[in-house]
Design brief:
Number of helices: 11
Number of domains: 2
Shape: globular
Distance between the termini: 26 Å
Structural class: alpha/beta
Strand content: 25-35%
CATH class of the largest domain: Alpha Beta
Largest sheet: 7 strands, mixed
Number of strands: 20
CATH superfamily of the largest domain: Metal-dependent hydrolases
CATH topology of the largest domain: TIM Barrel
Strand order of the largest sheet: 3-2-1-4-18-19-20
Length: 378
């Protein structure tokens, strides 16, 4: 593949430059340009070039659910590439262990080789079943205690990069350090634990919180809860900025408190689809009014995409573009320890999104491959 160039306002680790990115195959060969102020980027007509988006919490898309197996993960990866996600973690639901095992077997090929025209599937986010049955949210009622041998057996089926657990469950706190030593990133989530439980888990090596504010004990001024532990002590935490899961004011509070707060979609099979009924693991969910809910009205994942997450951060929350862009690319990459991702710099993977000044997608490249954007995703 011959070298190519992409011109525009380019977000580098040092800030925006007006210039060009030089690509050589699937890598960035060089970045050339003149520094420019962030506030000037959306005022002109030049394209905006950002690192490809990284989504660590993806259940589905285009009518396909990760838990259904088969070629679902390939379809989900293609759906999210259409919206600028160049890397994702395929995320499981709480379910009987044979169903989780079957899902992981189906995920393994996509983790080894990126689906054509799709996002890189870096591995698995095991969101269940090691959670508290009192904070299931939209998860089915198959929560169970974690056993290290079971985790290792699951990891042998497909690479687990991230696991969500409730630290207050008996035996879980003692397993955080061994999980970290084995290479798993540990997030606290779907938890009925206290502020003190959160601090203890962080001290043992947990490094993040799963969809902050949702499915965890809330902040009260005399009982800070798990939300209080995150706001007071976390460096990393997920947040779903669809403006339904979390009020904009709460998002702003988390942005002030958590240095590397990053965005996830928690997207479901309903993403990119018309209103109607869809699967979320064993649950049936309903898409309407821009959201996804169980029959009882409980929020059940989202239909958010990462390009919309970026627009919400900039145009609704009011973040500067460079700050917002890092929260959909750089910070999730750093949280996983994914070297070579989430930045535009020489020698790194050519994962790029090109947007107009309204932050609408114009181009997406994954490892240098141009994604053929369909009309509805532009």
């Amino acid at each position: 593949m011959t070298s190519r160039t992409i011109d525009g306002c380019i977000l580098t680790p040092q800030g925006f430059v007006a210039g060009q990115v030089v690509l050589d195959g699937g890598l960035i060969a060089a970045v050339r340009g003149t520094p420019m102020a962030t506030e000037a980027v959306l005022q002109g007509g030049a394209p905006v070039v950002l690192p490809g988006f990284i989504d660590l919490h993806v259940h589905g898309g285009s009518g396909f659910d990760i838990m259904q197996g088969g070629d679902a993960v390939q379809q989900v990866a293609r759906c999210h590439a259409q919206h600028g996600s160049t890397t994702l973690l395929a995320t499981t639901m709480t379910a009987p262990m044979p169903e989780i095992e079957a899902a992981l077997r189906a995920l393994a090929p996509a983790c080894r080789e990126r689906p054509r025209q799709g996002a890189r599937v870096l591995g698995v986010h095991l969101e269940g079943p090691y959670i508290n049955h009192r904070r299931l949210g939209a998860q089915p009622a198959f929560a169970r205690p974690l056993a290290l041998a079971e985790m290792q057996a699951l990891n042998a089926l497909a690479p687990i990069r991230l696991v969500t657990l409730a630290p207050e469950i008996e035996g879980h706190l003692e397993l955080v350090a061994p999980l970290r030593a084995a290479g798993f990133v540990v997030q606290i989530g779907h938890t009925n634990g206290s502020y003190e439980d959160g601090l203890a888990a962080l001290a043992q090596g947990a490094t993040g919180f799963t969809h902050l504010f949702n499915a965890m004990t809330p902040l009260h001024h005399r009982e800070p809860g798990m939300v209080g532990a995150a706001l007071a002590h976390a460096r990393y935490a997920e947040i779903i900025p669809d403006l339904q899961h979390v009020h904009p004011g709460a998002i702003r509070a988390a942005l002030r408190a958590i240095p590397c707060l990053f965005c996830v979609t928690d997207s479901t099979a309903a993403t990119g689809m018309p209103d109607g009924e869809y699967s979320l693991g064993q649950q049936r969910v309903h898409k309407c009014l821009g959201g996804v809910r169980l029959a009882d009205g409980t929020l059940a994942g989202s239909v958010l995409t990462m390009d919309q997450a970026l627009r919400n951060l900039v145009f609704e929350i009011g973040l500067p573009l460079d700050d917002a862009a890092r929260r959909v690319s750089t910070y999730p990459a750093d949280h996983l320890g994914a070297a070579g991702l989430g930045r535009i710099a020489p020698g790194l993977s050519a994962d790029l999104v090109v947007m107009d000044r309204g932050l609408q997608l114009q181009r997406v490249l994954v490892q240098g491959e141009e994604i053929e954007l369909v009309q509805h995703a532009r």
